[in-house]
Amino acid sequence: MTSPVRYQDPRVILATLRSARTVAIVGLSKDPLRPSNFIGFYLKRHGYTIVPVNPRETEILGERAYPSLTAIPFLVDVVDVFRRPDAVPDIARDAVASGAKALWLQFGVISPDGAKIAEDAGLDVVMDRCMKVEHARHLGRMHWLGFNTGRITAVRERGLG
Amino acid sequence: MSQDQRGSGEQGTREFGFDTRAIHAGQRPDPYTGARATPIFQTTSYVFEDPESAAAYFNLQEYGNTYTRIMNPTTAVFEERVASLEGAAGGVAFASGLAAQAAALFTMLTPGDHVVASSALYGGTVTQLKHLARKLSLDVTFVDPDDLSSWRAALRPNTKVLYGETIGNPGGNVLDIEGVAEIAHGHGAPLMVDSTFATPYLCRPIEHGADIVVHSATKFIGGHGTSIGGVVVEAGTFNWSNGRFPVVADPSPAYHGLAFHETFGMYGYLMKLRAESLRDLGGALSPFNSFLFLLGLETLPLRMARHVENAVGVARFLEGHAAVAAVRYPGLDSSPYRDLVKRYLPHGAGSIFVFDLKGGRDAGQRFISGLELWSHLANVGDAKSLVIHPASTTHRQLNDAELAAAGVGPGTIRLSVGLETLDDLTADLARGLAAATP
């Protein structure tokens, strides 16, 4: 089985986080205590346009929900997946069909088959990583809570706009 | 090249060395002022940008500062630096080593749980475990740390954690971390290790299978005997959702139903340790102490190498002295822990150890009185060399039989070898040994 580590390249993660504007979240829950809701809330707060994909809801986190990826009438940059691994190959095919640039599989969503479908079609793939954590690690404030971000730099960030 | 491009060059792709991380991990130049040293954020609280941000911080939906009892930007640098050096997912700092240890246990245990711990643990730890056991209805079994079968034999269906020290205090027992970790994991329990005497420079228990590492930062991490503090780091790989830790995994009544392990994944235990245990027990580290610990960590590799060099020199000097019965330094070739030292402490076995005088309690007191350079006090891990005679101080209420059970003889002396000139240290010890000899 392909190790998820192959799909955890920090350069791909950082490039995806920097270039993406629109993120479709497949399996986004309306329940504010669910992990997917935490991540959706965070991504929206940090300027991404989030697009809920959930056939049981019409609106989540103030955004219109779509029943499937193929029902979204505009292009999305990233497809972020909170579903069981066995649902991923179909989602990957939809992501390819919808013209997304990257497939992002959250913590525990490990699907080498789904990853290969996306990769073969030229999408960037991230697996078994949390989009919120990676954003907070590389671009956000994860260091404020004592987490090991792995970031070492002597370069001063632009703090005042 | 623009500033933004410069900052993104190797970001996240390079594994920096230990010495680099001891100086840089956790801290970047302050974006607001450009300050290169870590600023001391001596503030209790933080102004919120707007009500929505405040709500997001309190809900843990966003990483934000609310109150220094829970988080502080200076302390966060210290936490991330220790986590980086130990190879952990993150860290949470506390006002003392004992506060750190109590919170680490409090986060994972509930009444009725069972703890298996080394019998060679630091006395303050043994007292805390017995006290927690009494007050919180926990069971604690103390086992011979050198015997893997005794760890295995002590396991019960309700055993939730195994706990030992990398280097025992004061006996110098070296823990077979991989062996004990395997026993713990086979039982669905984490291995917690107090690595105060080793520091991450000499041993990184997580690399050998430990799940949680605690430190008294008061010792070598600070290194200058100025500040009391402690820190807990966690590997982030233990499965708290294995069905045995509902206290970590289930929706938390103390946090409006949040399920920490599911929501934060590998960071779930650490989030709970901070957002509940630190918040509710209140043992927060002072930002000023965090600053001093960070100064200490910058020179940790240099200091530890010299501590070990001096300790070996002092141990060899004592081993050859007629007034000394035994030297229990695990770094000596004569130590029964020699093989474990090779495996877990290849850069040295630290600089804290005991030796036994040929005389009894009187000889111990005469030895202490004969010293001029070694400081007689109850601490270890200072740049200054420290000495104590347990039978007349920390253990003076015990009779000889009770002392023996604690691994301390009437003529046992504990040393914490500092960074002074080695010849000066041995010359002073020679004075003490002459005074101890009738």
Question: What would your notes on this structure say?
Answer:
The complex is a heterodimer of chains A (161) and B (438). Chain A is of the alpha/beta class. Chain A has one domain: NAD(P)-binding Rossmann-like Domain (Rossmann fold, 3-Layer(aba) Sandwich), CATH 3.40.50.720. Chain A has five helices and seven strands, in the order αβαββββαβαβα. The longest helix of chain A is centred in the N-terminal third of the chain and has 11 residues, at 35-45. With 438 residues, chain B is an alpha/beta fold. Chain B folds into two domains: 15-296, Aspartate Aminotransferase, domain 2; 300-436, Aspartate Aminotransferase, domain 1 (Alpha-Beta Complex), CATH 3.90.1150. Chain B has 18 helices and twelve strands. In chain B, the strands form two sheets. In chain B, strands 1-7-6-5-4-2-3 form a seven-stranded mixed beta sheet, sandwiched between helices. Chain B has a five-stranded mixed beta sheet with strand order 8-9-12-11-10. In chain B, helix 4 packs parallel to helix 13. Chain B is globular and about 75 Å long. The termini of chain B are far apart. Residues 1-8 of chain B have low confidence and may be disordered. Chains A and B meet through helix 1, helix 2 and helix 5 of A and helix 1, helix 2, helix 4, strand 1 and helix 12 of B.
Key terms for this structure?
heterodimer; A: 161 residues; alpha/beta; Rossmann fold; five-stranded parallel sheet; two-stranded antiparallel ribbon; 5 helices; 7 strands; 16% strand; globular; B: 438 residues; Aspartate Aminotransferase, domain 2; Aspartate Aminotransferase, domain 1; 2 domains; five-stranded mixed sheet; 18 helices; 13% strand; disordered N terminus
- Parts with pLDDT < 50 across at least 5 consecutive residues of chain B: 1-8
Shape of chain B: globular
Q: What is the CATH homology-level superfamily of chain A?
A: NAD(P)-binding Rossmann-like Domain
> Would you identify the CATH H-level superfamily of the largest domain in chain B?
Type I PLP-dependent aspartate aminotransferase-like (Major domain)
On the 0-100 scale, what is the average pLDDT of chain A? 94
Q: Indicate the CATH architecture of the largest domain in chain B.
A: 3-Layer(aba) Sandwich
Low-confidence stretches of chain A: none
Largest interface by residue count?
A-B, 39 and 57 residues
Total individual domains of chain A: 1
Order of strands, widest sheet of chain B: 1-7-6-5-4-2-3
Q: Estimate the strand proportion of chain A.
A: 15-25%
CA distance, first residue to last residue of chain B: 75 Å
What's the helix-strand series of chain B? HHHHEHEHEHEHEHEEHHHHHEHEHEEHEH
CATH topology assignment of chain A: Rossmann fold
Largest sheet of chain B: 7 strands, mixed
Total strands of chain B: 12
The global form of chain A is globular
* Main structural class of chain A: alpha/beta
The biggest beta sheet of chain A, please? Answer: 5 strands, parallel
